[in-house]
Design goal:
mainly alpha, 2 domains, 77% helix
Length: 125
């Protein structure tokens, strides 16, 4: 019954169109939640069968690069796609952004101090 329903309402051309959409899916300027919702809809609709590593790779491949990098660093700790999604949402949150800005400003401050020290040393030569 389920197979007949799929044959009638999900013809092959329809399936190919949505699989293409899944392969071309990217986060862009969307939130993690919006990206994940569309990712889940497309994978569930056509019962995409992948092992865990393939699913994580597909999910993360088109996330924003900053989020992608952090998830791949922590990928050995992930046990589910849901955990990857939660990590991505945590990274996207404003508190994580503020922490990153503080870290960047601290690095800039250290760089400024280092440059001032180098200028002093160069002047003394």
């Amino acid at each position: 019954m389920k197979q007949k329903f799929k044959e009638k309402y999900h013809p092959d051309c329809y399936k190919h169109r949505f699989l293409d959409k899944l392969h071309n899916l990217c986060q862009g300027s969307r939130s993690i939640q919006d990206y994940t919702t569309e990712f889940d809809d497309l994978t569930l609709c056509f019962e995409v069968q992948e092992d865990f590593n393939q699913a994580i790779s597909r999910y993360c491949f088109e996330l924003r690069l900053d989020i992608q990098r952090i998830i791949f660093i922590h990928s050995h700790k992930l046990e589910s796609l849901k955990q990857a999604n939660q990590l991505a949402q945590d990274i996207e949150s404003p508190s994580h952004f503020l922490q990153s800005v503080r870290s960047f400003l601290k690095q800039q401050s250290n760089l400024t101090q280092t440059l001032a020290l180098l200028k002093t040393l160069m002047a003394s030569l």
